[in-house]
Amino acid sequence: MDIESISKKEHVEKERLKEEAEDYYIEKSKELRLKDLTRFKKYFPEPSENMKKDIAFAHKDIDKIATAIVSKKPWAVVSGLNPSGPLHFGHKTIFDELLWLQKHGAEIFIPLTNDESYIVDKTKTLAESRKIAYESVMPSIIAMGFDPEKTHIFVDSDYPDIYNVAMQLSKQLKISKIRSLFGFKDSDNVGSLFYRGAVQVSQILLPQYIEFNGPIITLIPIGIDQHPYILLARDIAKKNDMLPPAELIMKFLPGLLGAGGKMSASIKGSSIFLTDDIKEAKDKIKKAYTGGIMSSKYQKELGGVPEVCSIFLLQKYHFLNQEEAEELNIKCRSGLVLCSECKKCTNVFVENYLKDHKEKFEKAKTEIPKFLLKKRITSILE
Amino acid sequence: MDIESISKKEHVEKERLKEEAEDYYIEKSKELRLKDLTRFKKYFPEPSENMKKDIAFAHKDIDKIATAIVSKKPWAVVSGLNPSGPLHFGHKTIFDELLWLQKHGAEIFIPLTNDESYIVDKTKTLAESRKIAYESVMPSIIAMGFDPEKTHIFVDSDYPDIYNVAMQLSKQLKISKIRSLFGFKDSDNVGSLFYRGAVQVSQILLPQYIEFNGPIITLIPIGIDQHPYILLARDIAKKNDMLPPAELIMKFLPGLLGAGGKMSASIKGSSIFLTDDIKEAKDKIKKAYTGGIMSSKYQKELGGVPEVCSIFLLQKYHFLNQEEAEELNIKCRSGLVLCSECKKCTNVFVENYLKDHKEKFEKAKTEIPKFLLKKRITSILE
Predict the structure, then answer these.
(1) The CATH fold of domain B33-253
(2) Among chain B residues, CA nearest to A116
(3) Nearest-CA distance A311 → chain B (Å)
(4) In this predicted model, what pLDDT tens digit does every residue of A29-42 receive, in sequence order?
(5) pTM (2 decimals)?
(6) The CATH fold of domain A28-254
(7) CA B63 to chain centre
(8) Per-domain residue ranges of chain B
(9) Does B295 touch chain A (CB under 8 A)?
(10) Cα–Cα distance between A102 and B40 in angstroms, integer?
(11) Contact indicator for A69, A105 with CB cutoff of 8 Å
């Protein structure tokens, strides 16, 4: 084949991948009966950047959150992660959303689930994941600018009330239900079943307890793959006079290696960590998968496919507002901007961010105690 | 049928029940490959009363305990219960053994598993079982005369390190293993699976942690039905450079209602509680199942069957030494003592015990703090 044919083939393949990615979210939303966010954006005083850019795109019950915001009623957000390495730009998407939610009144709970990291084999010990939580994840979160008065971070093994809640709720969580929602094999360990079946639900429902002014309207921002946990939590909430949590579904930031994978700490080279060296980050950007094709001559003619481009998406998710992202999209599609130029731009954005984050990160380390959840859940024991 | 035939039939039936009960322990010990205690009694400085009376009758690895006693090495005992009501004389059997073990050097750990009570539906809430633990079970245990320096009591929901240990060990506990040892149905809740599969093992292995001078030789005195937990704990111990726990199997004290049931708080009228009113206790004794028969004329002729008599066994387990129990056995068998006389005697024994216990119980309430396990398990998190 000649270069022209190869280039066209390459371009067509990327267009196909774009369709596939878009279809995935459309199909999945239909299947799970999630609602489109579009018509709700207007209820918010000002939709979040993620909402405007269609990164936050589907929901369940978010109208209740909009009502709480407008009527200035208290409401809560729970959003955590299992610490197995530094935070990356994929995590930052969610935390940006949390910052917006906090600005509009949310009390935010952030469980750092070292038990999960260990039990699903992301770390070798509970201690290893716990260390990562305190030394890397927490400072990065705090560095992003959360309000210590309204942000409550906890590590599962250091906030064991979560297990009392899990034990309490687990009486209503039948093995058959967990099996139908998540499946499990007999070769799985009992810890992972208990984690998925009870501890996770307990975290989602934590604000429902009287110690945290529950029952209270709660929003859980999550990836679409975690929807079954919300279903389970809503089910348990209804059985316990709690308010069923609302959910806001966010699209994953794709990893730098392309092929549809999300940015993930466990796939080498797929992520730029918030604590990466500038040099390291630039090297990853250099190797990153794009929506362009081999031949710059034909790319000028055919254009790129920004929707599958890890570099375009990194910019869109983190460094451009809606209009800027649309403008870059058009420029790329029309072949006016090529990948090398776009990567140069990204280098500058990322370098500035990492420098700034590094400074704030060091200061944040000393602020951890202000953010740790201290209030015990005693009501279930009295 | 005439009275003579009825009486003979009744007597033969009780002899059959005696055989059945004895066969149960013999068969079960063989099946589980437990060792007979007889040849080990001689290694102990002085066997416990329960050993002498064949109430403690089988074991695994108890020679290691004998060695520790003789060589004055440290060793530990774990023995707990799920609080759902006051302690009864069935519990007292185990605690008597614990007192003997403590006298010979054991550091004693007593988990009061309110999570278990709740999860298996013996209480309606975690709080209810927790309240019973502090207000009834702990004072009764302390009243029996344990040494606060060497006795560590904890309620699961107030000593949540147990869940960190459970999470840690659970990674090695496969669902398939738990299923083969205990079975479970899909309609069971996930909490009970986690409890049986991980929390229970964590309690048994608690002394193995460095905070409690582990790895250390440990003995678990239990009923024969709990043997699978020991198997599981021994298996996990071997995988973690811990010392596999030894076990001492104790025969159940049968309930007052006869028919082979053990004394159990959940079967009304089967137990005399250590906190019963004298009147209440006497009333239960009056109605208690015995080894005698309806006609006293023929009982004098045929004799009783003390081995199935709840009254004889209550005396044997708690108020008679080995010689006295043998003497009463012979008297009963030869028809020299009838049930009414024996019950009168039991009334006196029980009345004296309950009076004494009541006094000590009130004092014990104030001593709880001295017995609570305070040391945290931090080594698994560092």
Answers:
(1) Rossmann fold (3.40.50)
(2) B167
(3) 39
(4) 999 999 999 887 87
(5) 0.94
(6) Rossmann fold (3.40.50)
(7) 21
(8) 33-253
(9) no
(10) 68
(11) yes
